[in-house]
Amino acid sequence: MNALEKYRQGPRPLRLTTLAATLLPLAMLSACGGGSGSSTPPPAAAQVSGTVATGNFVSNAAVTATDTHGKTVTAISDSNGHYTLVTASLTAPIALVATDPTGQSSNLVSVLTALPAAGQSATANINTLTTAIAALLTPDGNPMDLVAAGSTTTIGGAVTSTNVKNATATLDAYLANLLSATGLPASYDPIGTPYPTTAHTTADNLVDMVSIVPEGSVTYLIYNTPLPSSATTQSNTYLALNNTSTPSNTPVVPAVTAAYVANYASLQNYLSGLPTALKPCAAAGGTGSACNGVIDANYKDNGFTNITAYDSNLTSSNLSFTSSNPYVVNTNANGTSALVAIPYALVSSTTQNSLGQYALYTTVQQTPSGSWDIIGNQLPYNLSATTRTTYRQFLDTFTDPNTGRPDTNFFDAGLTLAIGSMGSGESGAALYFAHVTGPGLPAAGLWLGRYNATLSMLLVSTPPAAPLTSPPTPASLSGTNEYRWSWAPSTYQPPTAREFWATTPIDVTQAQAGSVYQFTLYDINGNNLGTYSVTNPNNAVDATLGQSYYQANAFPVLGNGDFVTGVQCPGVLSGAGSSDPAANFLCPTGSLAAQQTSLTMNFTPPSATAKVPSPLTETGALIQTWDRAGCNVQEPVSFGPTTTSATISAAGTCANGTPYAFWAINNPSGDATFRQLQLRAKTPNGVLFYVNQVYRNANNAVSAD
Questions:
Q1: Which of 348, 439, 548, 559 could make an S-S bridge to 512, C-beta 3.0–4.6 Å?
Q2: How many other C-beta atoms lie within 10 A of the C-beta of residue 603?
Q3: Taking Cα atoms as reference points, which of 271, 205, 270 lies closest to residue 55?
Q4: 354-363, 416-425, 598-607 — which is least confidently predicted?
Q5: What's the sign of the alpha-carbon dihedral 495, 498, 504, 505?
């Protein structure tokens, strides 16, 4: 009988059977203490509870407590981020890990040095601040070391009362000014202090203002409040999350005013409702009454005056903002304008609602009335800078013409610089070359040129001896817009005298705090079209970040993983992975080695259980092939986070009029070339992770470094 049927029938009258009527007085007598069979109820089981939050309460988070012996218990947080664990079976100390099912946030970690006795409870919040404390207990800043199998950092060795007390003191010293501004005590315990039940107040407002950023050799707790004018290097500006940081050697977040805190809280409350308001506006094409109060009349992002033109995904019928929690990248000095990220998903019958896949980056402002709207970055051109790390795996040993050494596997990291034409009649059509300067780039900056009307500009191959005064020729371009400023292992020797390679690897601790780049743009005649500030929403990372993720099996992989180790080119394909389409496409003896116009590739998404700070979400793939005739074919495709197969087709025309194709890999004497398959993923905060598998078919084939 369902609930509606019960309601329709109404309550039933109370009736006692003869047996029930006979036993009732005995039961009442026993309850009143009569007879000799009374007993004391056992005490309630020991419990640990708290709130999972990133500034927004994280609902449906999987919370796992691991004790000093590796035993675990689990719970799921409710709609307010609250969870409760029964810990009677655990032995202190413990580490708690909360995983966001939407993919919007990194793994959150907390620790307890002692557990409550039976019948008692303890508080253990799990948020950005508690994750920072856990990271301060480790030598490398990865709090997941505490629960990783085989880790040298153990719960029993790291989670001691002294260590946790010192880590908390270090955190409080760094946040002293923000603690005061948000009404919290100078000695604040983010683990054990009851968390506010109203979002974006006191401690939750403080959590809104900070972010944890893994950068490879170091992990920082950065602040989203304004940088001081005296900001220099990251090490002098942010808190390094490792066990060498102490209250005496950590910098201090600059003070903010009460007005700033009030504006920041207002901003966060606005962002909480923004996805709901933006959805009908996007469905209406970014115009009309549905956008009133959502999009400012003067809106402009990267030259686009319609938000659905700026991000065409917003027009998709599969667009989902369900559970989206926008976050702040940075703000202006008084907190009345902010660069924000609005996570969203593209959901179909074959994909899940993962909000870790896409984010709309835009600028919002507080209007004179005190309300907020989307104003955009106001840039007149389509410009962006994005942090990236890549693993490049070669299936050949031919000599790289850039290095003079055999192809070898390596990791690199750097910056993807995108300068895209917006087509005929748009402002971007006038752009022909550009000069970029900023954190992590050479003092002389970088030069990029236009390859064709559709591709983003590409870096020049070799640094020019003098500033360019006219557009570089297509032949002088490198074929990439990815600048490499770091590599691993340290024994790898990158090519020299290449515009897209640093001469020495970056030390991210000495990189300039902040991520603002200056783009100077030129037309076909060399006329200066202006210099524009472009904010990279991510900090710098080095190549050891990609290396550590790969070693933790956190990357997506081609096929089911067999292809990585089971196939050797150029020999005859056999054994595990030999039937995979990727193997047959990349290897010269494969069934797909001849010229192709399309490829259906299979792959395995990133592991959701890898012990890394921020699990990866796959976003797409790319096929690149480049022959000696100079036709560089690059075909990307986007897909959902659980996708395991995708078809990519070659569509376009070479400069000589030849239709695009994926050039044959089995004809080195006739056409030396390379083929590359790339899988793409990203962290919740937007750092791109690529894995490239490459085969070059001759020593004189174009370099794929």
A1: 439
A2: 23
A3: 205
A4: 416-425
A5: negative
- Per-range mean pLDDT, top range of 143-152, 427-436, 470-479, 492-501: 143-152
Nearest 5°: the CA angle 447, 689, 453 is 40
Q: Which two tokens stand for residue 13?
A: 């009258």
Question: Token digits for 557?
Answer: 């992989």
CB 681 within 8 A of CB 618: yes
Would you say the C-alpha torsion 50, 52, 56, 57 has a positive or negative sign?
negative
- CA neighbours within 13 Å on the CB side: how many for 51? 21
CA atoms within 13 A on the CB side of 481: 23
Give the C-alpha separation, 551 to 691, whole Å: 13
Express the helix, strand and coil content of the chain in percent, nearest 5 each: 20, 30, 50
State how far Cα 129 lies from the chain centre.
Answer: 18
Closest CA to 408 of 494, 485, 478: 494
Side-chain half-sphere of 588: how many Cα atoms within 13 Å?
18
* Rg of the chain over all Cα atoms, to the nearest angstrom: 29
Nearest CA-CA partner of 327 in 360, 278, 374? 360
CB atoms inside a 10 Å sphere around CB 236: 12
Widest Cα–Cα separation across the chain: 105
> What's the whole-number mean pLDDT along residues 444-468?
90
The CA–CA distances, whole Å, from 700 to 319, 369, 594, 629 equal: 46, 65, 19, 12
| Distance from C-alpha of 623 to C-alpha of 634, rounded to nearest angstrom | 6
| Two tokens, residue 694 | 């490459």
Residues 343, 104: contact at Cβ < 8 Å?
Answer: yes
Q: Burial-class residue 520 by CB neighbours within 10 Å (0-12, 13-18, 19+).
A: middle
d(Cα 150, Cα 171) in Å, to the nearest integer? 28
Considering the entire predicted model, what is its pTM?
A: 0.89
Phi and psi, residue 448, nearest 5°: -130, 150
What is the amino acid identity at position 372? W
The yes or no reply on domain 258-374 and CATH 1.10.1060 is no
3-state secondary structure of 430: helix
With b for 16 or more beta-carbon neighbours within 10 A and e for fewer, the 473-496 pattern comes to: eeebbbbbbbbbbbbbeeebebbe
Question: Hey, where are the domains in the chain?
Answer: 47-199, 258-374, 552-705
* Nearest-5° Cα angle at 285, 688 to 291: 100
Cα–Cα distance for residue pair 342/355, rounded to 1 Å: 9
Query: 587: helix, coil or strand?
Result: coil
